[in-house]
Amino acid sequence: MAQKPSIPKGTRDFGQQEMAERNYIFDTIRSVFKTYGYAQIDTPSMENLSTLLGKYGEEGDKLLFRVLNSGDAFSGIDYDSFRLDGNENSYNSKALTLKLCEKGLRYDLTVPFARYVVQHQNEISFPFKRYQIQPVWRADRPQKGRYREFYQCDVDVIGSKSQLNELELVQIVDRVFHLLDINVLIKINNRKLLTGFAEIAAFPDKVVDITVAIDKLDKIGLDAVKAEMMEKGLTEEAVAVLEPILLLSGGTAEKIATMRTLMNGGSASGIVSEAGLKGLDELEELFGLIDAAGIASAVEIDLSLARGLNYYTGAIFEVKALDFAIGSICGGGRYDNLTGIFGLPDMSGVGVSFGADRIYDVLKGLDKFPAGLRSTTKLLLANMGRKELEYILPLARSLREAGIATEIYPDQTKLKKQFDYADRKCIPFISINGESEMEQGLMQIKKLSSGEQKQFAKDDLEGILSFLG
């Protein structure tokens, strides 16, 4: 019995139609990146596991795809050295996994980018502006809008602490989604404020626990977030200090003013947070730049926004589609010392990542892909026989050299079948040339959408191109 073909859960095939649509997304994003002076690099799909581990938090580490060492990875291993407390059936699975798997599929493009910067620091000029459009992998539970293999479109600048870089990223986000005709809300927060939350709650060592919990506010609600923070060791009093912050509403200036009071000793704990005040200064400066730049998309401060990745240290961004229910379609932030892990300290950077697969789902769900993407071929030359084929071959060459995507139907068959082929592939023009056209040196072209039909001298390339548009 033949095996039924399948692909792993959380992955997808993309046919010609889907690839045309995906390339529309990639080309749109790439064009905007280029207008802001970013140039492309690529990094390997696999990285050393030591490069990836510890960069995404405990939850992120669990989602890394490990790559088993090549050859017989299980031979020559002293399993006794990995047993726990002499128990024959209990092993230190983390240490054993590291022994068996020295490489992993990349989880995102930012950590490999930091590795690249350190490894090639003597070859590049700072500030270094780059973009990458490549797939990443996460061992997540597949669900709507969440895949195990998906593309990210990253844009980063490293080697500058100026918040003009943050502004530029907001402008890029605004421009990309304007071109894609997606209404979005750009949410912004600052990780220094999250440090401030932990400090005024009198639990400065719980920054990560608080951050991970707060980042789930939209998904699980306030009560569940409060319960999770208490499970992590926060007291009721500490949670009570944080709750009004998460419920804070109003405009940008109002939120900043209220938070400044709380961070300056005005909370129930009376604690002053210098980190929180610094974060507010940065937010105030950034929103001043955004107002001056005239961003068309909606932009707001979201104090519950945390972004789960541990390497963020300053501004953080998240973008939501307003007219389609799905998770964030773009996100990122400022990281001050990611390269320090690889031996190059104090190299600040900031970047955002566009989730191409979720953007695809939004455009598909809203039916906003341009109709012209449905065909890559402009003109189909009908196959009428051997002599006619010899007549149209030079025509096809001239058209292709002029940049017109041209196909010749491969088989001599009924015209109805060839018309059906053009219809299925959404080819807008068909050319049928028989004995009469050959005798007169003509080329006949029909526009299928309207039925309009014209004849041209076969060497009248200008007229033919004009009709094809």
Characterise this structure:
The protein is built from 18 helices and 16 strands. The strands form 3 sheets. The chain has an 8-stranded mixed sheet. The protein has a 5-stranded mixed sheet with strand order 13-12-14-15-16. Helix 7 (191-200) packs antiparallel against helix 13 (274-293) and helix 8 (207-214) packs antiparallel against helix 10. Helix content is 40%, strand content 17%. With 469 residues, it is an alpha+beta fold.
Q: If helices are DSSP runs of H or I spanning 4 or more residues, what is the number of helices? A: 18
Pick out the low-confidence regions: none
Shape: globular
- Biggest sheet character: 8 strands, mixed
Spatial ordering of strands, largest sheet: 1-5-6-11-10-9-7-8
State the end-to-end CA separation.
52 Å
Mean pLDDT: 90
DSSP helix fraction: 40-55%
Q: Please give the number of β-strands.
A: 16
Rg result:
29 Å
Sheet-strand content, in percent, reads 15-25%
Class based on secondary structure composition and strand pairing: alpha+beta
